[in-house]
Structure formats: C-alpha cells, structure tokens
C-alpha cells in the first residue's frame, strides 16, 4: 500500500482550482471538506488494497473523492435544513460539470452515499463501501474535533 500510488490516482483532481476551494468549507466540527473527502478516498483505497477487490481501483477512489463535491459552505448560510438530503445531487451535478467522464459506478457512489439518511440505497459494491467509509470518517472527524475542543478548554 503506497501513498504515492493513492496520490497518483487523484492528483489531477486535487490540482484543480475547484477542488482546492473545498479547503475553505468547514465540515464535521473543525475539519474541512477537502480533508474529509481525501480521508474517505484513502479509506476506500486501503480497503481495496487489503481485500483485493475485483473492482477498478481508480474508478473507486476517484468516485469516493468526489462524494461531497457540493461546493458551498453549509455553516451559517441557511442551507443546512435539507443539506443531508440534497447535497448528494448537488455534488454529482458539480462533479459531472467539472470532471466529465464519470462512470455510472462513480455517479451511483456520489448520488447515493448518504443512505440510509436518503432512502435510495447504492446499486454498486463501491457505493455501499463509500457509504460505510464516509460514516467512519465522519465519526472520526467529529471525535477528533471534540477532543481538540476539550484540550483547548482544559488549557484555559
């Protein structure tokens, strides 16, 4: 398992101005959307490497990277009321616009990654794995944010 192999799969997406914008959007307590998306993609990469899946590695990792590509700041903008339900569609629209050539598997991954919050389950193995690893990363993001806040409070 090589971080350089992982980065070579997503380097072109990471280099785009549009994807870099995700660094300024807060996500899960104190993290940002960019870091969360890279973390989820890396978890999917590690899963593929560990279990030798019979799926296309690049397709899987790139779909995972773009799962939250909705490109707006959720906090303080009044959009959060229906965000959980609507952002997968927005992420898919943005991904199609900025990164043409998405496969049907990648589209399924992005559009359905919020199951079971949204009612439509993924139709692919890659989509199910993305659902799982997105939740793993979200819990980790929240726990790390809570721990950081507790340490800062303790220091005061």
Strand content: under 5%
As for the CATH topology, it is Hypothetical protein af1432
The biggest beta sheet is recorded as: 2 strands, antiparallel
List the strand order in the largest sheet.
Answer: 1-2
Order of helices and strands: HHEEHHHHH
Mean pLDDT: 86
Architecture, according to CATH?
Answer: Orthogonal Bundle
Kindly report how far apart the N and C termini lie.
Answer: 41 Å
Unreliable parts: none
The CATH class is identified as Mainly Alpha
The number of distinct β-strands equals 2
Give the count of helical stretches. Answer: 7
Described by the principal axes of the CA atoms, the overall outline is globular
Query: Rg to the nearest angstrom?
Result: 15 Å
- Percentage of residues in helical conformation: 55-70%
Structural class: mainly alpha
Q: In the residues, how many domains can be counted?
A: 1
Account of the protein in words:
With 156 residues, the chain is mostly helical. It has one domain: Hypothetical protein af1432. The protein is 63% helix and 3% strand. A hairpin with a 3-residue loop joins strand 1 and strand 2. Helix 1 (3-14) packs across helix 4 (57-65), helix 3 packs antiparallel against helix 4 and helix 3 (33-51) packs across helix 7 (125-155). The N and C termini lie far apart (41 Å). The mean pLDDT is 86.
